[in-house]
Amino acid sequence: MRAPLLVACTLGGCLVGAASGCEKLLSIQDPVAGNGPGDGGGIDVPIDAGNPYGNLPPGSPLLLSEIVLTTVPGSMTDPGEMIEIVNTSGDDVSLSTYYLSDSGNYYRLPLGATVDPTDFIVKFPEGAVIHGHQAMAIAISTPTDFASSYGVAPSYSLRDGSLVTIAMNAAPQLTNAGEPIILFQWDGQSDLVRDVDIMIAGVPSGAANALPNKSNATQDGADADKDASKYAVDLMTIHAQPSAPGNGVSTKRIALEETHEIHGANGNGPSGDDETSEDISVTWDGTAANPFTAPTPGQVPAALLR
Fold it and tell me: How far is the C-alpha of 30 from the C-alpha of 236, rounded, in Å?
């Protein structure tokens, strides 16, 4: 187990990095047995007796559906990079509690997360809605750059102010070789964020592009109480793809999660699902049987609809 990190208070809770000045403590630990409050795992700290996710609905029909890592190899302002999300249900869904990130620090957001160069954490704006059976393409570059690549406008862009920038370090860019992409929820004050969908696109290399194991990490966010909440154990069986989608192709979801990840087992996702347990060799392309193909922004395959 690692030694606890002392933290400094901010308006959003506690921020890693100071040696004193805050009564709260963040402890990032190696995984131990147990899930959630009162399971006997983790360290001996008060655990928030309330809902660590606030009043979020128990489930979510949203999934990551397509990712373009590069269209111009070596470019620092790649015009065609994108992340797409899909609403698998027929009902409209408010996006006001949803966030996107390519940073492993996403789960520390209630403490005031920072990100590495070219990484980001962004939030969908208040009032944003994704309609039933709709896909939304989020451009990493400008809408003009995106349109030059695909002939259509994106739903949102990381560079035009249409999304709320929470953390960004220089111009955002996806790593060509691969990195994790995370769709998650936060109510803005609870201790924990909730995983909605996680994808390890391509073949990430180095610690900066790794998906961290947040099992049993405890933190106290900006909610009214001073009790910490603890993340459940992440199974961490999700793995990288055999190769990265290169220039001119994307990686696409080809099947719903359904029986391809652990559901309802006190995980960190909707309804207790474990988003780090998804078998992406079945639910995403990039295999010999289902090779990468050209990007299709805004299109929703029938296999992704409920």
Answer: 13
**Per-residue CA distances from 219 to 119, 210, 244 (Å):** 22, 21, 34
Residue in 214, 228, 216, 231 with CA at minimum distance from that of residue 22: 228
Residue with the larger pLDDT of the pair 144 and 77: 144
User: H helices within the chain, ranges in order?
Assistant: 143-150, 280-283
**21-25, 64-68, 145-149, 231-235: lowest mean pLDDT where?**
21-25
- ∠ Cα 105 164 65 (to 5°): 70
Residue 215 CA to residue 29 CA, distance in Å, equals 7
pLDDT digits (tens, 9 = 90+) for 173-184: 999 999 999 999
Q: How confident is the model at residue 270 (pLDDT cuts 50, 70, 90)?
A: very high
Burial 15-38 (b: 16+ CB within 10 A, else e): bbeeeeebebbbbbbebeebbbbe
| CA 151 – CA 148 distance, rounded (Å) | 6
Look up residue 148 and give its amino acid.
Answer: S
Beta bridge partners of 87: 62
DSSP string, 227-248: -BEEPPPP-------SS---TT
List, for residues 122-149, the tens digit of each pLDDT value.
Answer: 999 999 999 999 999 999 999 999 999 9
- For residue 169, what are the contacts with CB-CB under 8 A and spacing of at least 6? 114, 115, 116, 117, 118, 119, 120
Q: What is the pLDDT of residue 12?
A: 37
Going by the DSSP 8-state scheme, the letter that residue 302 receives in this structure is: G
Q: Identify the three-state secondary structure at position 110.
A: helix
pLDDT digits (tens, 9 = 90+) for 225-245: 888 999 999 999 999 999 999
What single-letter DSSP state applies at residue 124? P
Residue with tokens 């890592």: 69
The amino acid sitting at 106 is Y
| Residues forming beta bridges with residue 38, ordered by sequence position | none
How far is it, in rounded angstroms, from Cα 215 to Cα 235?
A: 8
